[in-house]
């Protein structure tokens, strides 16, 4: 794989990159002598905007900002360094990556404060949008961010609808309000404030800076949070939000905040920003949800009083805050689930589906983008690469095939057809599936195992959940079976399969697989529950009729024996497998897809390999 050298990365500076360095003065700080988050948000937004405008060559406005987690506070006298660069340009919008770090001038230490992704859209004085030229990533880091930006964009565009769906379709059971005498009436935390938008709050096109609005929102949210705890709270997280409509110089911005719910050590404050001019009706500009906590003098989180919500809207927001908290916690868990940690599987449920799907595809794209893959062996242009990490072995099998990328994707994404080329499945018996005799087992020693593979759920057009049963490696397939799997026990996997078509030409088609847990499908006696952290296909269009297929797997102990003889050079079964795959793709390249795509009734199987 041709990848830019690290040296190139060191010398090169992204032309859209901008950097702001600012010493924190008392006028930027709150009562704890820490940089006010509102001030930081203004700096982040203006730095990111300059980066976006550098690429666009015209004025830009903030469309949205993804979740921000503040990992540290910054004290007076310390230096804030904000770096922003455009990760990807789409049509009229761009994703800008922002990294905030802090420097202590006395010790010379640096640390990361937060990372954020903001989307900017072009805006001409005429109000017209401008089509952006594409941004070509140069370094490996840029290529990864360019690729992941498409995935993040998908997430943020559907974010509002997904949240609305989850909250309105009763994906969460309503929780009873815990009545205690000490509960603080939510009404007591209600804040309202009005701001007149003046020229210093806006750019030269008179559009109000998004960062300024965020700072005003943070101000009212902090007041609401302080009213609950009678202390100075610390802002930990701002959920992803979207600027629904523009605001201009001369607008009156009305900001309203209230504590929606208080948990043991954290509270959710909701803020709403609306604008008006003269007699005009209010225009909804933005709504945000912020999580605050209170720390004592030793830095320990303080227990917060309960909240007594107001009826109707207050009660609804109280329930919705619980649901959002669960979503936040699930996401934290998904991110924290690392390689080689047990369990590899994360719980799947409808409330974390979108994020898990994003995570599934992102993990595969990041694995594919690694530049330390080592070529292990090559046979007739089918190459086996390996990637050794502490406790996990990754492998990649790559080959080209004379089939259109879209068609190859269609064929490989239809997991029910894998039996047509993957010999590891020839021993499984599938109801309704006619595998031609000449394609059946080529005299292996393994005995036939009843394989049961089911499509558990087609979640949406891109995602499906499968239970996959594979023969145990202990049954004679390979000699070095892992001792952890008892003799004769068959393995099963609960897999989330996420598929993506390219966002733009140059992007690959992706089929990502990872293990999840489902309460409806616990592990059962007689089956060893296998786990896959990250596996799947990435399909690149080489030319109109040629695609490059890359198959990846971060091998867990259950999977390793399938490939270890190949890696050790003792066999080349990977080669025959993927030759069979190539033949399968070739033979079916022109045919319409006859099997039903993700049909719940058709037998579906896949393999961790
Ligand atoms: N997050 C990020 N980008 C989003 C988005 C979201 N939630 N929703 C839409 N977009 C992107 C679209 O993907 C599209 O990008 P593309 O052209 O690269 O594909 C772009 O915004 C325009 O989308 P479109 O559907 O044509 O426009 P829209 O009518 O939904 O308007 C805004 C989107 C952002 C332009 C509009 O809501 C707006 O003007 N908001 C105010 C922005 C502003 O003034 N901010 C400063 C502070 S007030
Ligand atoms: P929702 O009511 O669905 O949460 P809104 O956009 O109306 O969405 O409001 C976002 C948040 O702003 C609310 O959750 C609430 O915390 C806060 N908020 C809205 N209206 C008011 C208000 N009149 N007074 C105080 N806070 C408000």
Give structural notes.
One of its GO terms (biological process) is fatty acid metabolic process. Pathway: Lipid metabolism; fatty acid metabolism. Keywords: Cytoplasm, Fatty acid metabolism, Hydrolase, Lipid metabolism, Repeat, Serine esterase. With 609 residues, this protein is of the alpha+beta class. It has 3 domains: 146 residues, Thiol Ester Dehydrase, Chain A (Roll), CATH 3.10.129; 162 residues, Hotdog Thioesterase (Thiol Ester Dehydrase, Chain A); 242 residues, Alpha-D-Glucose-1,6-Bisphosphate, Chain A, domain 4, CATH 3.30.530.20. It has 9 helices and 25 strands. The strands form 4 sheets. Strands 15, 16, 17, 18, 19, 20, 21, 22, 23, 24 and 25 form an 11-stranded mixed sheet that branches. A 6-stranded antiparallel sheet has the order 1-4-5-6-2-10, with helices on both faces. It has a 6-stranded antiparallel sheet with strand order 3-9-13-12-11-8. Strand 4 and strand 5 form a beta hairpin. Helix 2 packs antiparallel against helix 4.
